[in-house]
Amino acid sequence: MTTPPNSSPPVRAFFLLTGTWEAADLKGPMGDKLGLMPPPPASAGGPITTMGGESLAWAITSKSKHPDVSAAYLNFLTNQHASDVMTQTGNLPAVPGPAAAALPAGSPEGQLVAGWQQISANDGLTPYLDYSTPTFYDTLTAALQSLIGGQTTPPQFTQTLQKDYGTFHQS
User: Structure pTM?
Assistant: First the structure.
């Protein structure tokens, strides 16, 4: 590629499709050259939808012997102090607080929080597929390997996933 006279060299950009958990590690070598953004909407001007979540799919079951202790732990993970610690370490807090609001808008951390707030405001977060059943991650990864390897067809792939999902929800 040549650059026309009296012009700036071309800007080179690379995209890495990943999750927010990579932000702090990527910022180390890239500094403020790192840019973060949510995925684009399916149609121009439409709402942004993406798969994700904050940490694991935490829940307190109805069979818990100590639901108050479980609730206290979940509160600890999502309280103001936890939010500030997550923000200060370059991670996305479950509930962005004052420390997140004080981030410079153009910084990688500010972009991360702004994207999260944009997705959340439009109820655009969908759960990870592997949360569907206790065995779904293993089923999904094995079936995907078979699909990519040409050992199964797309209809067989979806039937395998549906069988896992259906069996769990019928039990």
Answer: 0.69
